Amino acid sequence: MKSIYSTISICITLPILLLSAFFVLSHVTMRQEYLLEYDTKAEVALRKFPYPYRAALSICSDIDNTETLEEFLAINTFLNTTEMTSMGRGVGLDIGNSFFFFAPRSEAISYFNSPPEVAECIRKYIKSEQIDTLHSYGEKEDFTRANAVSSIKELKDSDLKIDVWVDHTRTPDNFGDDVTFGTGDQPDTKTYHADLTVDYGIKFVWLGRITTITGQSVPITSRSFTGIYDPDHPIESVRNIVKEFGKHVLAVFGNDKYEMHRKNDLVKISTLDDGQKVYEFMRFDNFWRGVAEGGNSKNLAYTISKKTLEKLKGNGGFMVVYTHLGQRNNPPEYIPKETQAALRNLAEEFRRGDIYITTTSKLLNYCVNHRYLKWSYETKDGETIITIEKIDDPVSGSYIPSLQQLRGITFYVPDTETTRIFVNNGEVTKVKKNGPDFMGRKSVTIP
Ligand SMILES: [Zn+2]
Predict the structure, then answer these.
(1) Last residue within a domain, chosen from 317, 352, 387
(2) What spacing in Å lies between the alpha carbon of 391 and ligand 1's midpoint?
């Protein structure tokens, strides 16, 4: 009896304590100057997303449990094409996948341990940007630096570019220190490879951080937490609110592990153990029974449900969704029915021009290029002249961007007919002129 009372009193007092801490400290956490909003009244302004979208999402799937090439091809054909598949017509979205260099054959396909046609397929998909993520070097307990050397040689020999790294469970080559524990970035270990891997081209890393808040790179408000509530699962979702809020409070008090949660940012600059700077990103999984169960193909239907997408559109956030498309608990189809339906709905959101769906690599690059874009404008002889000077990237240094690096960049302007865009003194000749968006504002886009 006594223990019931103490449980009840903890359940009541803990949320009250956390909430009061939040309100006291919220003025500290709300100052997020780097967040770009739609509320700008400036006549000429950088739009947060490519026209006409009001939010952006990528699905970031770890390759674990994708056991055969047939399964990989079935999943990706459904995601990336509009061909007829065993699950009906594909959804034709720009969704990426990941790969391992090493994995036991019983666990997943991999570059070195599967038959050669798998390596051939991985090369083909990296070239077409439909594989955009290296899911650590893989499942290899005796991993050493020599394995990273041979893996990078394969990538370079075939001129393959990958810039996203995702830590895998708890393999020794991971970079993470507090969730996914690895020594890949510790120079005094035989697993050290971060110098080679970053030098090769890895720019974005995921070190195990997952949020249940819908929409990143938007300010934290009380609705960020109350939005986690699911009336179909009241007890579990209240527990999830308390957990998420607890992370936020710990971060406000200086806990490094939850620093990303404090700002609710999609990307932040992190320092690896060897001192190298990289962009760390956060993934999203709001499954009511917890993150561990949410990360499979069946429960992806929940994490990208209509409800979640409505919230995402409402707050205008970025979101990288955590999943494992190969984990499906033996249903008859490669992608469970409910997830097929959720992906079809996602494709509708994209085609209606509401949510920008792209690969994780393209989403993260867009986010960073947008954030550090240095530009100005002037009005001269009735024309609006926009000048893009550089991308002032604090990790890789300042550079003049190529048109490809600027794809999707959109500016609100008063008159699309009299606007010209210049990059490094050269005029962008094929600027796309857009009519009013959902805010009623006209814009121009670099295609
Ligand atoms: Zn994994």
Answers:
(1) 352
(2) 33
295 in the same domain as 173 = yes
Contact between 59 and 95 under an 8 Å Cβ cutoff? The reply is: yes
DSSP states of 182-231 as a string? --TT-TTSTT--HHHHHHHT--EEE-S-EE-SSSBSS---HHHHHTT--T
Nearest Cα neighbor of 138 from 191, 77, 190, 94 is: 191
Q: How far apart are CA 134 and CA 402, in angstroms?
A: 25
Task: Please give the distance, rounded to the nearest whole angstrom, from the Cα atom of residue 207 to the centre of ligand 1.
Answer: 12
Residue 156 shares a structural domain with residue 293: yes
From the CA of 64, how far away is ligand 1's center (Å)?
5
Tell me, in angstroms, the distance from the centre of ligand 1 to residue 343's CA. 22
Closest among 246, 311, 252, 255 to 284, alpha carbons compared: 311
**What's the mean pLDDT in 1-20?**
52
Please check whether residues 284 and 427 belong to one and the same domain: no
Do 160 and 289 belong to one domain?
yes
Spell out the residues 6+ positions from residue 269 whose beta carbon is closer than 8 angstroms to its own: 277, 278, 279, 280, 394, 395
How many domains does the structure of the chain reveal?
2
302 three-state secondary structure = helix
Given a cut of 80, is residue 10 above it in pLDDT? no
Ligand 1: centre distance to CA 402 (Å): 34
pTM of the model: 0.92
When pLDDT is averaged across residues 162-166 and rounded to a whole number, the result is 98
C-alpha of residue 312 to centroid of ligand 1, in Å: 26
Read off the pLDDT band of 15 (50, 70, 90).
low
